[in-house]
Amino acid sequence: MLIDCNAYVGHWPFLQLQYNRCEGLLSKMNSYGVDLSVISNLNGIFYANTQPGNEELHQELKSRKSFQDRFIPFAVINPIYAGWRRDFKTCMQQWGMKGVRLYPKYHDYTITDANCVELVKMARDANVPVCFNMRMVDSRARSWMDIDYVTGTKKPEWNIKNILPIVELVPDAKYIVLNYANPVALSDKEKQLIQNAHLLIDTSGRGLTHMGEAINSFGVQKFAFGTHAPILDYLTGQLRIESLRPSEATENDKEKIRSGNIKKMLAV
Length: 268
Fold this sequence. Notes:
Layout: E1 3-9, H1 22-32, E2 36-41, H2 43-46, H3 51-62, H4 65-70, E3 71-73, E4 75-76, H5 84-94, E5 100-102, H6 104-107, H7 114-125, E6 130-133, H8 164-169, E7 174-178, H9 188-196, E8 198-202, H10 211-218, E9 223-224, H11 236-242, H12 251-266
């Protein structure tokens, strides 16, 4: 079984995307043998109020049973926008969404902002994971209209250390780290924090070029297949799993990355 834990529908203002509606994404899933995809709406990153983006996704999924059978919706929530607590409850309790994606850099708050911490605790209490992206697009080729997050500015691209403060504050929440693009040296304490957390890293980011080394550092239970589609290609995340040598991962290990780890987190 293959479950993509990192996919999207919707538009990116600075890049023309293909197969960025449920129908197109489903055709790609069928082409590459993907059974289920976790998706959210890219539009919600750029709407001042993220909730209409969540509603767009909900309505699109309702339009066809095959969408409901194959897609697992996550909500985009901005915890510093008025009404976000109501939006969270609507998405989880009324629309049946299964997780939250947060974008502190795009919505301009710190990861330890009191509202962000409260939202992560609400997600924990609802038993749903919270996702953070290392980056959405490569900052070296960003549009001049995109947020200023090139290296050396006030908002440089994240690495996994940037996620650790919230993990430390809410250690019993579930976390998914997406597009792991910037590997960084970690202290033993930081490695231990990651190893102890209920945390997954998806396979889409270029920081996992040497995935065997990452598995050796964190353990096979910390990884899940992801594509970051349609922004990134649909195959690289899968190839990183299939190219693992027998000395790096057994077939059972690979199956955990393909679907087992994310199934356990989402209880699907």
